[in-house]
Every structure is written in C-alpha cells, then in structure tokens.
Amino acid sequence: MRAAPSFAVLAAFMAGTTMAQAADLIFSPEPMQQSTGWIVTVKGNLRVGPSYPGSDDYSFIGYPSLSFRRAGTVERFSAPDDGLSFSFLEDSAVRVGVVGRFVGGRYYQDNRELFGLEKIDWAVEPGVFVEYWPLEFLRARAEIRRGFGGHEGFVADFGLDAVQRFGAFTVSVGPRLALGDSEFMQTYFGVTPVEAALNGQVTPYRPSGGVTSVGVTGAISYEWSPQWSTTAFVTYKRLVGDAADSPIVKQFGSENQFGAGLTVSYSFGYTP
C-alpha cells in the first residue's frame, strides 16, 4: 500500500433553512441549543483508495472541510461519497443544488509500469445534484459533473441509501452506479498508439462512453455529543464495460476498487 501525503482544502457550503420531512423523521434528536446564528461543523477527513482509477495500488489522502447550517435545525444526512454540495432548492423531500468533486491525477511515480503513458493531472468536477427521499428511511441522489484540468469529460453518479438511526448510531448502506462519456474514458482508460509503443506492455485501446462501475457504500456514524461525531465508511466499486476491458486495468491494475475512510466532526455555534 502506498501513502501519498496529498491534502486538499474543500470550499465551505451552506445548508438551506427548510429541512426535508423525511430527514426530520430520521434525525429526531434536538439540535444544538442555539436559536440564532449558525452552526459550524469542522471536519477532519482521512481516506484510502486506489491511487488512480483502475489502480491496484492505494494512497492516503487527508483534508479538512467545513459546513454551515442555520441554528435550530438538524444536520441533513450526507453519504461519505457525496460530492461537496450547496442546495438552492429544498422543498419537502426534494433537494436540488450545485456540487463539486476533486479527482486525483495519475503519475509515473504511482506505478513504474506506467512508463510511456501520458501523465494525468488532478481535476475538479463542478456540476449539479438532485436528491429525493421517497420514504422516510430511503434517499436517492444523482450528480452530473463536468471535469476541468486532468480530464474534460462529463461524468454522472447515482446512489440509493437506506438510512436508519439506532440511538447515537446512524447506519447507511446502498448501491452505486457511475457513468462517464468518451472523453473521460479515453483519459483514464484509453491507450494511444504512441503510448503503446513507448510502454511495450499494452496495446492501443479507445474506449467508448457508458457505465464505468457499479458498487456499494456503507457507513456508520456515532454521535458522542451534540458537538462531536465520528463516521467510518467502506466503499467497493467494480469496473465494468470498456473501463474493465482497458489494458491499463488488465495489465497494471484491478477491476476491484476498494476504499475506506474516517471523519471526525466538531460543531459549534456562531452568531455574526
């Protein structure tokens, strides 16, 4: 397992004032006792996952993040693999807004066998999301994003989470589906004739857009107090279709993509 000391500071986001009825039913405990101002939540995140899409080597990444919500409201459920989001429409069980993700790059030092393959820089993926609670314990979420930097393609993620609270514990689990267009697929899974000639271990390959992976995410959170909470999670993705058939995956990587992480959160009141 490789350890890469990568750090990313994520932008803060603000939750809306109207909470979904479904989320209210799930998160019944009283919020922090403050009637005015904001509740600020500071998070320290530590994650381990594939060094690049399709890799069988793993890297660590640690980063802080912030979130805000109005005082007197409870915190919405958020899966650990959600993108950083800001909602501009919250109506009953529906939530719509903007979202963003950070995607690490692929570099020669990640795997010496990648010699001859083009370096891929890190990328940011801004986009939009839609979230819907059809039942009080079931959340559906879709994100559509466009890459800038390392890749210039469009990607989409779909997820379904069953969420249940047991005292101070909150447990969630659900399936995942990821898609990418041909630009995204060519960046991470394609091989040009020049790259194939320089590397010598792979053949030219031009993938098409479509489903890139299917998987599942599970998480468990514990609320130590109204201020402190801890979340641990695991993820599994299985590369499928043209992504799984890539010679980069078959020769140097794996179709099975595992991940895990831990988040420690501290909340406090703030009145401007």
TrEMBL record:
InterPro entries: MipA (IPR010583)
Cellular location(s): Cell outer membrane
Signal peptide region: 1-22
GO CC terms in record: cell outer membrane
Keywords: Cell outer membrane, Membrane, Signal
UniProt record similarity statement: Belongs to the MipA/OmpV family.
Protein's name in the database: Outer membrane protein V
Organism ancestry: Bacteria, Pseudomonadati, Pseudomonadota, Alphaproteobacteria, Hyphomicrobiales
